[in-house]
């Protein structure tokens, strides 16, 4: 199908940076990597020969995106979560009843994320069936691997009258139809995902019905989980136990369930997530605005929890998962050092919480893929060719060859890659985005 | 000299966003704004008519840049400060003995920062006289307003034998010569600045001599101040009091002295800074890696301290002061909410510490200018025309006219502007950077 000659950076494990200098990767007609060979042993012409200032990397896996919030990316973050939802976000999402508006947004959003290197996207849609199916179609048309979920939300207190499912049965029925419509598109690239918005927005009947729906249809699940003090306490007040236990009782804590945020999760929650083979979408930038604390990433990883990264568009203002990875490193450092200079050092932060750029890139690629149970996130024979090419030619446009070794070059790349430095994006072997020039 | 037709965003005060729709700004031959008029009252042709998807803003003032660290931007940030300095930074800086290497770096650095919208830069050079003067010349050649300081560092413990001034008298003498050489370039645009690296790197004699040098030559001063637990405590151990008192005793706490970081400063330090009319360069991203805490910005502002922003290249991995402004908002939110989810909410953060994007942009423009005593940072008749044009056409390339009002558009702009969205940069009326196309 295609072949690419390049030097590769990737992270097969959370702690290991692998560098392959000047190899040719060939991809078969199914979009799967069929061989990786040193370039000097390759005889045939190649389709794409990357400039030496570029590196080829696995594509990025964004576990948490609210697609209809794209037009408000970067706004309203000074508001508390409840006002942000009711005054900004729900009014915007309700506009996706208008299919033409939805299609205009999807046609902007999906290519933008491909330019940012997001080859796999896990999307919340809106409550609208047509707009959600249109999002799945847009992903197929632009070639992005995706999970697309129609949002279920029917709780009389947790949602406004003008933006909710009219009943639990309506919520479940529309969710079932959304699964059928997305499956009817007939591509493995784009899959449905059962999406109860979060517990405060859903009635018990809806939560239980969606758990059963996921089970009978074999569909993945996504929801929010212990995102903030308010949301975490709300669930305890309503059920007498935490989000993970509640989700578990409703049948929503399943293999590859994507739990967004999780900042307030405790050790017993981590155990339950491991037991159920679910995973967490860590959204560091959104958490700084709505999460009330830093997700204890190192503790989760040490407990054996599957974790990947999410931008949380538009609760997070940053569309780039690479920049989100850099922020995950920064946030982990702030958790470790603490923030309040008036406290003495030993009472300020939490020891041993830092991650490094290698850990962060693994989260952004293989980590996210493992949460979803997908074989992507690594360039290896037998895996889909989901990849990006990044210009690492120095922030100022120059590669400081005599200063940088691989580890330093990789650190620069993680800390400085924006969309204008991603030259190519491939999904399943298809070139789906390319910078002009 | 030139005229620009555009809509303007700017922050005349820390809390006020001013929006001027479709005005013509004319600039005289001295680079000073001579008039601002509604476009429909303007008769003559204009030199630059910005597309409606663009906004004109005051140029950015970066108060803290280590110019010779540019080639290592974004690397080594997993190291503790001392190892970062001795194993990475000092070896790199020592290479600036080679003038050709220095000139290659400056020719990359200065245009890159202009592309990022930094119209005023406060630079640390290296200990090398020739390389430092070459940096001043590069600023003049590329048209960047700048303060350029030859670094003085002679302490036998705080510096390595292979990268230090040989004696206090040599440090003071070279600093005096650097002032003379930079003044001899004969432009107001680029000024010298007295630069004791930081107290741990300087002998008492050097600190005292540089204080006297600043006084006799009427030169501004820059140094680091209470950056981290280690550095803050080092000064207390050496002198029995904090950085601000020590700097004051050595005559370095003067009007418009730029004190970088200040995360560990207490209320009495703030009082001293206000009394001496000095100011602080807040470097939020660098502080997450080397500062051990978040600078208590809100407390400093409430105490009446002049504060601006610094990237701290390369202690901070981000060259964009606009992104640094966004990070200042994020860091202030993390100080307010706290970071450790195991603490109860009331014991986690510090109340009332947040800033918003309007405050942050003011810090990045007028705030920084006030620290330096410069008239820039605001587009007003009688002030120099230092300005940038930013494409605010939606993150995905689209302006959501029906979603965004001015306040939301401005928030988007602060949270999403990278170099590829800055189309023009002017300094003192001269167009010094323009994106192709």
Structural summary, described in words:
The structure is a homodimer of 437-residue chains. Chain A has 437 residues and is of the alpha/beta class. The first copy, chain A, has helices at 81-94, 99-115, 129-142, 168-184, 204-217, 229-239, 243-249, 267-276, 284-290, 297-302, 321-337, 357-372, 406-416, and strands at 2-13, 16-27, 33-38, 48-49, 54-58, 60-66, 118-124, 145-149, 151-152, 190-196, 220-225, 258-261, 279-282, 306-309, 387-391, 422-427, 430-434. In chain A, strands 6, 7, 8, 9, 10, 11, 12, 13 and 14 form a 9-stranded parallel sheet that branches. A 4-stranded mixed sheet of chain A has the order 3-2-1-4. In chain A, a hairpin with a 5-residue loop joins strand 2 and strand 3. In chain A, helix 11 crosses helix 12. The first copy, chain A, starts with a strand and ends with a strand. The relative contact order of chain A is 0.16. The model of chain A has no long low-confidence stretch (mean pLDDT 95). At the A-B interface, helix 2, helix 9, helix 11 and helix 13 of A face helix 2, helix 9, helix 11 and helix 13 of B.
Question: Can you give me a brief rundown of this structure?
Answer:
The structure is a homodimer of 437-residue chains. By secondary structure, chain A is of the alpha/beta class.
Secondary structure layout:
Two copies of one chain form a homodimer.
Chain A: E1 2-13, E2 16-27, E3 33-38, E4 48-49, E5 54-58, E6 60-66, H1 81-94, H2 99-115, E7 118-124, H3 129-142, E8 145-149, E9 151-152, H4 168-184, E10 190-196, H5 204-217, E11 220-225, H6 229-239, H7 243-249, E12 258-261, H8 267-276, E13 279-282, H9 284-290, H10 297-302, E14 306-309, H11 321-337, H12 357-372, E15 387-391, H13 406-416, E16 422-427, E17 430-434
Parallel strand pairs in A: 1-4, 6-7, 7-8, 8-10, 9-10, 10-11, 11-12, 12-13, 13-14
Antiparallel strand pairs in A: 1-2, 2-3, 5-15, 15-16, 16-17
Helix pairs in contact in A: 2-3, 3-4, 4-5, 7-8, 11-12
